[in-house]
Amino acid sequence: MGILPMTNTGEIRLRRMPRRRGFTHAHRERFMSIPRLGGKAVVLLGWCCLLGPATARAETRFYLASQDDWGGRHGFYLNFEGNELKTLRLALGIADGRAWRFIGPKPGFQSGREHHIVAVIAPGGARLLLDGKTVGESPGRWSPCSGALKVNHRPTWVEVGGDWLCVVSQIVVTLSRDGTERARREFDFRGPASRPAALQLLQPGTPESWPLEAEPSDTLTVDVHLRLLSGDLKDCSPLIDRYGQCRLADWPEKIHNDDDLKENIAEEDKRLAEMPPSTDFDPCGGYLRAGWRGEAKGFFHVVRRGGMWWLITPKGNPCFYLGVSSMPASGWPTTPVTGREFMFEWLPPRDGPLDRAWSANHWGQGDTQYVCFHTCNLIRKYGPDAWAHQSAVRSVRRIRAWGFSGGGKWSASAGLVSIPVLNAGDTPRLGRHPDVFDAKVRETFVKALEKQIAPRRDDPVVLGWSFGNEYDEIVTKGEILDVLSRGAEVPAKRALVDHAIDTIHGGDPAQVAKAWKVEAATREALYASKPAASTEDVEALRRCFADRYYAFIYESVKKIDPNHLFLGNWIVYNWWENEEDWRLIARHCDVIGHDYYSRGYHHPDRDRLVAETDKPMLIGEFSLPPWYGGRRGYGRYDQASAEDEAEAGALYHQWVQDAAKDRHCIGLVWFQYRDQPLTGRGPGRGPKATFGEHYAFGLITVTDQPKWPMVERMRAANLSAAQWRMAATLAH
What we know:
By secondary structure, the chain is an alpha+beta fold. It contains 17 helices and 28 strands. The protein folds into three domains: 204 residues, Jelly Rolls (Sandwich); 326 residues, Glycosidases (TIM Barrel, Alpha-Beta Barrel); 123 residues, no CATH class. α5 packs across α6 and α10 crosses α13.
């Protein structure tokens, strides 16, 4: 994740990778893997593709049903593929453990038509029917994929807009074994399908999932009723009103004029007055009624007491930390408008105070223009001179009233606890990461860290330092192969060769040469070679590189600043090469910084790793964004979304209660303070409804309104969390 330029209000803008909820990111494999085909040729009725989706040009995709491991060649998917309705392909992919095979007719679909699609995947072959007629068959066995079956969704990696829209009304999935129905699930989407087409362009489909375990001898039937409509944005535009809301939707709190914005100030002030900050906590979230205190070191630190890990505030009070990231966010996130200006009813003028809402080139896309609608709303609400200060002051008042301990990653309002995210600055990179085996690179790297840490080295409201974010900091097998392909002068190449000789192959260069299929009798010869290292050796070298990389960062940060905690790099469960990455990172931090998106706190495999490493852990990002049934235009965020604000508050309450009782978890940070734009935060340009994330993650709407049904329930949980943890300590 790279850091973007400062905004005109001094906030740091950050690039974030496309995210999922933290269990799998297999969609990336579609871009990175090409299936290896073996065995006999397969003849298909209908369309036959030998290479599969990874080799096709960028196309709009919509998945009716999928349960697949693309790289492992297991499972199936049923989807639409293409950018034009008249040439749209209906594709059924089936994997047998060795290869994928496909049925893919292009019947010439027309807008407005109702269709009935049935896919039957049986032990001896697969069949695809469209409106009662067989359009393709594929003989051969299938190899089911474990995990959840997903229906009615557009993958997050699809960034190309087509001229069509799929509207699913019903999907029925049936699993039969030995002629007997063993499992059945009916998905009724008639409610969401009744939304105006414009809203469905902003959130295609209604993603749902179902845990399904099939065997190769089972028969799986997917029965779908749907409509295909025109997806022409211009027919539905303008989609967005002058306040950044969906123009074609309505709800009780919707803002209709500038007076509505201003009137909200008094209403909110009244409600906040009824929620005074609790006197049970110190300014950093430390609990004053615990009956015990830790050492007041002037900085956050961790202790273990009664089997539970506790965060101790600078004043020495035990704390279960509850934060909110990305505050006050007065100028971010923004949405790209270049090439789709027609989607917006209004755009701010280029002169006058509302000009502050414009910016450019956030993601390295030249002159792409971006607008921040909530900046316009803040200026209208608080005035052209006071808006930035007033919104920042109000953000602190809100956070205190709602029982949060402070801020989190990326940015925090002045005076609140924060968790700064460090980066490598101008340090040269060897592929994805700096070569920490190179003395000159290490020197540059340390200077970059010092420059960022020095201004806040003695700051008590820094909870701890972290470095980088999520998958960006995972050392991959691909980059190890890249290092091994380089010349003998590259320090990392030499270090990895040395590790292979001394640690993997018993000190014998000849054994390494044999294993790597190169002619080399000495170390120097191996340094200069371009080996074909085995999968096992590449993994061992990957762990060697990663261990040294994480150790260097940890040791450097602690040498520069021995007082503050170091929280690693926000690892995401299962978004890695393998779970050894968790163990590697855990060795080189004081607290495991971990991002996790799910409707529930617990997951057995994640819990197992947390218990195994037995270190304190802080969740730096989680969220339960309401999607309002698709009726306000926000996206549905995989399996972490809530139906509405009330459900989001209830789920948060349970999350906090479960986390507070976990002896390893010392706190949670909600992502994020404000909602994302309906049309996405980018990157992108051109006539497409959304670019990037477009979720209602925030505590605050684009019109600067608190989500009262949600934050009231959050407040109750926040004020109870320390007591829950105290009770769990006694029970333990």
